[in-house]
Design a protein that fits this description.
Blueprint: H1 3-21, E1 34-41, H2 44-50, H3 54-65, E2 70-72, H4 74-79, E3 83-94, E4 99-113, E5 128-143, H5 147-168
Parallel strand pairs: 1-2, 1-3
Antiparallel strand pairs: 3-4, 4-5
Length: 171
């Protein structure tokens, strides 16, 4: 095996481990009735070369989520106070050698209120702010040849982690 292959395996474990062992207060998921999914890809030229598309990642996440939680469009999410946005961000860094590192983040973003200053926020009268209430992040090393599959598999693992936490807090 090549040195690059060993480094790839080490990075995948070392940086995936924090997501596996992170301990968020899962009770924030109690009462959540649905999620809107938003996928963003930084440096789209890098991911285009690696074959990664926003549409594929969005579809993967939504299909996986539908097993346990209602997936909402933007208009539906605005109508319900018990919903949140599940935000997936891909930030790639690729070299001319064909090796890439991807920073992946899956965050549950919800509107929260500051009790000490109820007028601060995105709504002048409501005082609500968007805050991360659940998160899973990792760094993934991959070659351009297999980056699409590894990023999509990693997203699936991250969504499964979210769903496991969500199911553990259902009433």
């Amino acid at each position: 095996m090549s040195c690059g292959h060993h480094l790839q395996k080490l990075l995948a474990f070392a940086f995936f481990a924090p997501c596996l062992f992170a301990q968020w207060d899962k009770s924030v998921l109690r009462g959540l009735t649905g999620v809107e999914v938003l996928v963003e890809i930084e440096q789209k030229s890098e991911t285009t070369v690696a074959g990664i598309t926003k549409d594929a990642l969005q579809t993967d996440a939504e299909l996986r989520l539908r097993r346990s939680v209602k997936v909402l469009n933007h208009e539906e999410a605005l109508q319900s106070p018990a919903t949140a946005m599940l935000y997936f961000n891909v930030h790639p860094l690729c070299w001319s050698t064909g090796q890439c590192v991807f920073a992946l983040e899956l965050s549950l973003m919800e509107l929260v209120r500051l009790e000490r200053n109820k007028t601060t926020g995105i709504f002048p009268m409501g005082g609500a702010l968007a805050a991360t209430t659940w998160n899973c992040s990792l760094l993934l090393a991959a070659s351009r040849n297999n980056a699409e599959r590894q990023v999509r598999d990693s997203l699936g693992d991250m969504v499964d982690r979210f769903l496991n936490d969500y199911r553990s807090e259902e009433h």
